[in-house]
Amino acid sequence: MAKVVSLKKRAKVNNAPVHADIKDPLQAEKGRGRIEWAGRTMPVLNQIRERFAKQKPLEGVRLAACLHVTAETANLVIALKEGGADVALCASNPLSTQDDVAASLVVDHAVSVFAIKGEDNDTYYRHIHEALNTRPQLTMDDGADVVGVLHNERTELLEHVIGGTEETTTGVVRLRAMAKEGVLKYPIIAVNDAKTKHLFDNRYGTGQSTIDGIIRATNRLLAGSVFVVAGYGWCGRGLAMRARGMGADVVVTEVDATTALEAVMDGFRVMPMSEACRMGDFFCTVTGNIDVIRQEHFEKMKDGAIVSNSGHFNVEIDLKTLHKLAKGRAVLREFVEEFTLKNGKRIIVLGEGRLINLASAEGHPSSVMDMSFANQALASEFMVKNHRKLEKKVYAVPEHLDQEIARLKLRAMGVKIDKLTPAQVKYLGSWQEGT
């Protein structure tokens, strides 16, 4: 059961106790500063928050959010609350919670938070159930775990749910599979597929934060090393770009011919993992698939190869097999574990194979999450207004919302762009005029 955290010392939450399960409410002051600092570079979300405070588009809506509990997420949650939502928040990854941020959300904003950094798998799912105990009408997922639990274990709650949103590629893949099989019970907006999300968050956010996580965990030099990026989707593109910028010799592995060709054209060496595993000093998986690095790769790696993951789930590295192959294990420093194989070679795994940018670092910079979470806020508002018109399937973020977020971001950056003239609009919409 969740703990009842007493907030009677803080008048701004009306002296009411809040159901929560966090590490330490006394960390709230530190978290308060982090939340404010992140909010300073989230101008789009701040504008949405100001409008939400006036219009209350989410008034009385119960919302269960399963997201990385970071300072950026806190700013989203605060905006949703300003809009009138009753938010319950749990973590979408056992290692991604910032405990001080969780404390501030509970103490300063009376949000029911169920998240502790380093929680075990049982606690992780118990926290999801705690969030669902609020009988949500909206779900907000990063990986579709809330949707999965609702459809498999808490089906009695589905009658309350009017819609949801999904933050990441992995979750969207799961949800589209559910919709294709006809088992999805409510409409969901794929926030990940918005241009202002995946073109920026996935590429620039993942690229920078993953490198940040690897360097914080290891304090190793990337320049002059061979850095293997598994997967060249938008996250892989960003990671490869940043690793090359740090001076690494970047190798890309891929399964899609067109994407592999693009990586070649971008100037990277492309080869199968069976070849790349022999030469890599650093490895990072960003595919969203299982067993990308597995036994035959471990056995061929260099002594001391460093292996990490920045895909949503900890399934891309076959850790179960690595555990069986190892004759010895040792934690060398926080988030750095060494596995010694029977042939004497040592494989280093970072962050338990979980999202390294959140396990050992702080996730994406706030300025890029500004657009992602603006999409989440506006998609939630859209779902409340339009859910009766929607079928039980996965929808794209409406184009006009995507464009509005881009316009607001440009305005905040002081960037101006051209507008089409009436003649140009007419020309683009006609077929009569040729060369």
Characteristics of this structure?
435 residues, alpha/beta, 17 helices, 44% helix, seven-stranded parallel sheet, single chain, eight-stranded mixed sheet, Rossmann fold, 17% strand
Structural notes for this entry:
Pathway: Amino-acid biosynthesis; L-homocysteine biosynthesis; L-homocysteine from S-adenosyl-L-homocysteine: step 1/1. May play a key role in the regulation of the intracellular concentration of adenosylhomocysteine. Belongs to the adenosylhomocysteinase family. Its cofactor is NAD(+). The chain is an alpha/beta fold and 435 residues long. It has two domains: 3-197 and 364-413, Rossmann fold (3-Layer(aba) Sandwich), CATH 3.40.50.1480; 205-359, NAD(P)-binding Rossmann-like Domain (Rossmann fold, 3-Layer(aba) Sandwich), CATH 3.40.50.720. The protein has helices spanning 28-39, 43-55, 71-82, 99-109, 121-132, 145-152, 169-181, 195-218, 234-245, 257-265, 273-279, 295-298, 319-325, 356-359, 366-386, 399-413, 422-428; strands at 3-5, 18-20, 62-67, 86-91, 112-114, 138-141, 163-166, 188-190, 226-230, 249-253, 269-270, 282-285, 305-309, 326-333, 336-341, 346-350, 394-396. The strands form three sheets. An eight-stranded mixed sheet has the order 11-10-9-12-13-16-15-14, with helices on both faces. A seven-stranded parallel sheet has the order 5-4-3-6-7-8-17, sandwiched between helices. Strands 1-2 form a two-stranded antiparallel ribbon. Strand 4 (86-91), helix 4 (99-109) and strand 5 (112-114) form a beta-alpha-beta unit.
